[in-house]
UniProtKB/TrEMBL annotation:
Biased composition regions of type Basic and acidic residues, renumbered to the chain: 370-379
Domain Bacterial type II secretion system protein E per the UniProt entry, residue ranges: 193-207
InterPro entries: AAA+_ATPase, P-loop_NTPase, PilT/PilU, T2SS/T4SS_dom, T4SS_GSP_E_ATPase
CDD domains listed in its UniProt record: PilT
Superkingdom of this protein's organism: Bacteria
Chain coiled-coil ranges: none
Transmembrane region(s): none
Disordered as annotated region, ranges: 358-379
Native source species: Aeromonas sobria
Homology family: Belongs to the GSP E family.
Name of the molecule in the record: Twitching motility protein PilT
Length: 379
């Protein structure tokens, strides 16, 4: 089976990733579950041959030097794929990520409506956090598309690689791919302000320099958006702080507090109908949240979020609970993805018990609510 055939199966069956490793059959991930594409294990040299076919001369030289290679390929009538080639046990391995080029509409993703206000902000910093394969890029693409359709301006993206290709609509969108349109993230970031942007999307914050650029963009009147690998807002804050030496952290927290518009964290959970849905945690940069960040009081952030649901904030556990109540996901799926499994399990238990009491009251004619006469009887 050739690479093209395997990628065609991946695209046609809505798979996310293809895995090629010596000694194992080609495998792919569909809706979060792994399954083999055939029964024939890949022999020594098979993956190296496949990798050599998709790399040009310069990429082959770079791979021989670094033993790592990232690239993107487009196959007509099939799709676009992000490829990572690496070595393990002295054999070449390959992982291909299916990049869905059709930009999903915000409404179809069923994301919290408050995000539409966030993406239309004039300035500030918005960070999307989550693990690999959590759907961050998909959600961001839908939000950028919403802004593009509803606001004029100049949007610049710096990505590695470009995943979703946007059309110029009300805004002009320039998408720069690292290794194709610019030598590096840092080279592109240094020149971004000269390109008079309104919105700057940085594919991923991986180090201190990129974080410094994101803060500088937001401080100078731009909306800076990026992603970060972390499980939730608290973990993301810890990771950002660890980019910087001890003596610079007070200034960092002050800058972050002044410019933060939102931390958006998400995880993909399996739905009862066999699909997947994003469970989303949102921490908005309200006056209270900004002050707590400046003081480094991260331990109390979740408590504030839980009390600020009316403003659009939500914790992961609350988002998961709501999905259980709506019948979108099973209880065990919610508990498995919770930040505090015990607390969420207890919350679901109390909700179920309350529902049973209500059902029992309806069936017998008894009710815990006072009657009209009882309401007026004060003695």
């Amino acid at each position: 089976m050739e690479l093209r055939d395997m990628l065609q199966i991946l695209a046609q069956q809505d798979g996310s990733d293809l895995y090629l490793s010596t000694g194992a059959p080609p495998c792919a991930k569909f809706h979060g579950g792994m399954r083999p594409l055939n029964d024939t294990p890949l022999a020594p040299g098979d993956v190296a041959r496949i990798a050599a076919e998709i790399m040009d001369g310069e990429q082959k030289q770079q791979f021989e030097k670094d033993l790592e290679m990232n690239l993107a390929i487009s196959l007509p009538q099939i799709g676009r794929f992000r490829i990572n080639i690496f070595k393990q046990r002295n054999e070449v391995s390959l992982v291909a990520r299916n990049i869905k080029t059709e930009i999903p509409r915000f409404e179809d993703l069923k994301l919290p409506p408050v995000l539409l206000d966030t993406i239309m902000e004039k300035r500030g910093l918005v960070l999307f956090v989550g693990g690999t394969g959590s759907g961050k890029s998909t959600s961001l693409a839908a939000l950028i598309d919403h802004r593009n359709r509803n606001s004029g301006g100049h949007i610049i993206t710096i990505e590695d690689p470009v995943e979703f290709v946007h059309r110029h609509r009300k805004s002009i969108i320039n998408q720069r791919e690292v290794g194709v349109d610019t030598r590096s993230f840092h080279a592109a970031l240094k020149n971004t302000l000269r390109q008079a942007p309104d919105v700057i999307l940085i594919g991923e914050i991986r180090d201190r320099e990129t974080m410094e650029h994101a803060l500088a963009f937001s401080e100078t009147g731009h909306l800076a958006i990026s992603t970060l690998h972390a499980n939730n807002a608290n973990q993301a804050l810890d990771r950002i702080i660890n980019f910087f030496p001890e003596e610079r952290r007070p200034q960092l927290l002050n800058d972050l507090g002044n410019n933060l518009k939102a931390f958006v964290s998400q995880r993909l959970v399996k739905t009862t109908d066999g699909g997947r849905r994003a469970a989303v945690e949102i921490m908005l940069g309200t006056h209270t949240i900004r002050d707590m960040i400046k003081r480094g009081e991260f331990g109390s952030l979740k408590e504030v979020m839980e009390k600020s649901k009316a403003l659009g904030m939500v914790t992961f556990d609350s988002a998961l609970f709501d999905l259980v109540v709506e019948g979108v996901i099973e209880e065990e799926e919610a508990v498995k993805n919770a930040d505090s499994a015990n607390n969420l399990r207890l919350k679901i238990k109390l909700w179920k018990e309350k529902g049973q009491i209500a059902s029992s009251s309806d069936a017998t004619g008894w009710s815990l609510e006072p009657t009209k006469d009882e309401k007026n009887d004060h003695f």
